[in-house]
Amino acid sequence: MIKHPVKVHPSKALLKREDQLAWKMAAVATDKIKVDRDVQEMIINRIIDNASVAIAAINRRPVVSARGMALGHAKKGGATVFGAKPGVTVSPEWAAWANGTAVRELDMHDTFLAADYSHPGDNIPPILAVAQTMEKSGRDLIRGLATGYELHIDLVRAICLHEHRVDHIAHLCPAQAAGIGTLLGLKQEVIFQAIQQALHTSITFRQSRKGEISSWKAYAPAHAGKLAVEAVDRCMRGEGAPSPIYEGEDSIIAWVLSGRTQADSKGRGTVFEPIYYEVPLPGPGESKRAILDSYTKEHSAEYQSQALIDLAFRMREQVGDINAIKSITIHTSHHTHYVIGTGANDPQKMDPKASRETLDHSIMYIFAVALQDGSWHHVDSYAPKRAGRADTVRLWHKIETREDPAWTEKYHSRDPETLAFGGRVEITMNDGSTIIDELGVANAHPNGARPFGRAEYIHKFRTITEGLITARESNRFLEAAQNVASLKAGELAALNVTLPAGTLLDAKPGIF
């Protein structure tokens, strides 16, 4: 990997495109290096994973609405829509919208955490939609997805968006555009422009994950995918983009992220702060392997809760009488405390009438339910009746989080052996006794007690789609997904999953 410094430059510097991050990202996208076998196998795992969580969410309101919008943009020879019958195809940007929403709705697919947050599986819907529309092969798809994952994760390693309250789709959209560029075999110039357009149009803010969290949390990555498809389409037609998009004096880095510009002491001119980022990218001929550093979810909740859910299951056996608990303190990382813990100072996270989208970002609620039930279900654990149970509310309100510098350090570790997202939990009983335990990584994590492999991905697919699709359709899809590298041009519709006739809900009418 080569670390590339990225900082703000004044317009008069006339920064060469060869020195711009977007150009260097486009170079990675056009590198025709072969996809390593283990990377290909992990891409297959994530195609299965995405389909599983999409079908499990298929008739939830946000997904139904997104699907309804997409079906209003029918296109012969276009892209498939999760759940819809074979032969129903729509324009690819709308398939990216519908399928991306379905994938994201349950907050149960893959994750990568570093300087920022990400769900790199969000790259799959738009790249697959374009692959189907443009009649590309399974091998083309794999190459495009390897690029999307690589560039997305590389940006997340280096550039923190959340500290400036910028939503993390700002890293996703450029990666999606680059992945589409690799898929289609576009020239570096075209991908360069598409990456810049994608970033420019995808800057949104984190209020979508604060307060009354709405369905936009599921729509956000789908919106990025739609924007990415549109950006590539425009640039294929010869259109350009604001440039340099990362380094310009009025760029996102200049005015929103670290490296801001400011007036001098007399209010004249512009002073450029020397703050810069270092973004790691594969060198020429170097394999794109970033997907192997990401990890999926066993439980439908924010990733920082995964290890703590598993820990709650384990501590449940030690506690015995849960009603005898006086208080629970979760010592954890800065992120967990301030984003999904009591450090957020967000009353919604303690409200039994809060939305599902809010509850899955409340570690207090999640730990309480996991401790009481000893299990986790992507629907039942968030049901309004379950959230409103009096004994659950009492326990929930006894829980607080505290930042522990040691766990923050583990959270930001660059060493995969010490990287951890869990915490230490101290349960104080009414009699004054305490029960203390800790867990660094979830059981499903590559370093966990039960790391996910192909068998676990297939089990997850079969478990959460049970009763929604037929056994025949389940078997057909799993066979197609595991043989994606053998699918020929025009055969990628096999990666769609169809619900039985009459079981797919219709959306309320809108404009489309």
Automatic annotation (TrEMBL):
Top-level division of the source organism's lineage: Bacteria
Domain MmgE/PrpD C-terminal: 299-484
Alphabetized SUPFAM superfamilies for the sequence: 2-methylcitrate dehydratase PrpD (SSF103378)
Protein name: MmgE/PrpD family protein
Gene3D superfamilies assigned: 2-methylcitrate dehydratase PrpD
Pfam families hit by this protein: MmgE_PrpD_C, MmgE_PrpD_N
Start and end residues of each MmgE/PrpD N-terminal domain: 20-260
GO MF annotation terms: lyase activity
Family (UniProt): Belongs to the PrpD family.
